[in-house]
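tokens incoming
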């Protein structure tokens, strides 16, 4: 959360922590998953890490010791899923290949409420807004959707612009912008106030797997497991990308399902 460290999950079934400045590994790998680790997320206080593995489990780890905390959460599919902590560390959001989003209580590990339904294809990435009121998701249906975190209702129309699967989404710290990346090798920053989308020219020549903005550190991870780190001033876009703002349509109202009217 302080931008000084990076957590990664790998095909080698381990979770590792890296120094963002030097690129060197910190401590020993976290061992416990018996198949590849698909997704990892650090709690806002930096003390815990949640992981999702192809062994059909979600696990919570002590970030300092690398030991698993509590019982393993069993899930019903071995397919890739995205997991992310809420900023208050009380909940974990899971995006799954069944086209739904589920919320888990971080302490009891039990599901809260009903699944969020709206995407028409696999959900590949999910993330909470800084104030915990919204969730953003990216999908193989090439759209980005914003949800009311309590009711599960869609807010506004889907954000459209990517030409292939949206593999990575994350709110920026100001809560007003969303960064997304995907199979089209493009990173986009969506400003929900000005309705301008900044398209970042590709310097990463393979599929974007993850993108995030923590304090002054912008991080993009590609399909070859290379982590590209760019240091910026505040939340400014890296100059290397030659940003090109493009207007898009979006409103701040909950979307009413026409079929239910």
């Amino acid at each position: 959360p302080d931008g000084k460290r990076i957590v990664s999950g790998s095909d080698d079934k381990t979770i590792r922590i890296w120094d963002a400045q030097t690129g060197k590994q910190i401590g020993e790998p976290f061992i416990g998953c018996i198949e590849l680790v698909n997704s990892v997320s650090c709690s806002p206080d930096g003390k815990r890490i949640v992981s999702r593995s192809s062994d059909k489990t979600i696990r919570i780890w002590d970030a300092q010791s690398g030991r698993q905390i509590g019982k393993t959460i069993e899930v019903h599919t071995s397919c890739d899923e995205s997991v992310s902590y809420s900023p208050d560390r009380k909940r974990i959001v899971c995006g799954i290949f069944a086209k739904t989003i589920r919320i888990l209580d971080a302490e009891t590990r039990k599901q809260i409420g009903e699944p969020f339904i709206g995407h028409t294809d696999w959900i590949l990435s999910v993330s909470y807004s800084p104030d915990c009121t919204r969730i953003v998701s990216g999908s193989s249906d090439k759209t980005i959707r914003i949800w009311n975190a309590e009711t599960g209702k869609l807010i506004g129309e889907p954000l459209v612009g990517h030409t292939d699967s949206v593999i990575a989404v994350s709110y920026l710290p100001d809560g007003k912008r969303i960064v997304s990346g995907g199979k089209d090798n493009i990173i986009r920053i969506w400003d929900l106030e000005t309705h301008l989308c900044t398209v970042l020219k590709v310097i990463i020549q393979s599929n974007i797997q993850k993108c995030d903005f923590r304090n002054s550190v912008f991080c993009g991870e590609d399909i070859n497991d290379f982590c590209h780190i760019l240091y910026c001033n505040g939340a400014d876009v890296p100059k290397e990308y030659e940003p090109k703002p493009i207007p898009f349509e979006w409103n701040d109202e909950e979307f009413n399902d026409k079929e239910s009217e």
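note: The first strand starts at residue 5 and ends at 9.
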